[in-house]
Amino acid sequence: MHITFVKKILSSGELCKKCREVSERLETDGLIASINHIAIADERDPDSEGMKLARQHKVERAPFFLVEENGEVSAFDIYFKFKKFMAERGAIQTKSASL
């Protein structure tokens, strides 16, 4: 499994608020070690890696995760869905109440 985490840089040059929050949750939930690559979607550069990935996978909001597994790529633009997906694969121990 290969996981890419795409964060957005706003036109102001700052990391988007949601991206900061999700980064913190990845640390708290112990999922940061599962991330293989971090790509940046820079609003100021339509050719940035993250912007290209967003277009390629038809994702319209950031942050998002691309999970490549068995030759197929799944996109998650909601952190809790990504977290549930990872829990189902045994990547984290999660109580059902916290999902």
Please give the structural blueprint.
Layout: E1 2-9, H1 17-28, E2 37-42, H2 49-56, E3 64-69, E4 72-76, H3 79-88
Parallel strand pairs: 1-2
Antiparallel strand pairs: 1-3, 3-4
**Would you give the CATH topology?**
Glutaredoxin
CATH architecture label name: 3-Layer(aba) Sandwich
Unreliable sequence segments: 94-99
Q: State the shape.
A: globular
What would you call the structural class? alpha+beta
Q: Please write the string of helix (H) and strand (E) elements.
A: EHEHEEH
Helix share bin: 25-40%
- Terminal CA distance reads 22 Å
How would you state the average pLDDT, rounded? 91
Report the C-alpha radius of gyration, rounded.
13 Å
Strand content: 25-35%
- The total beta strand count reads 4
Describe the biggest sheet? Answer: 4 strands, mixed
* CATH homologous group name: Glutaredoxin
List keywords for this structure.
99 residues, alpha+beta, Glutaredoxin, four-stranded mixed β-sheet, 4 strands, 30% helix, 25% strand, disordered C terminus
Model description:
The protein has 99 residues and is an alpha+beta fold. The chain has a single domain (2-98), classed as 3-Layer(aba) Sandwich (Glutaredoxin). Helices cover 30% and strands 25% of the residues. It is built from three helices and four strands; from the N terminus they run βαβαββα. It has helices spanning 17-28, 49-56, 79-88; strands at residues 2-9, 37-42, 64-69, 72-76. It has a four-stranded mixed β-sheet. β1, α1 (17-28) and β2 form a beta-alpha-beta unit. The longest helix has 12 residues, at 17-28. The radius of gyration is 13 Å and the shape is globular. Residues 94-99 have low confidence and may be disordered.
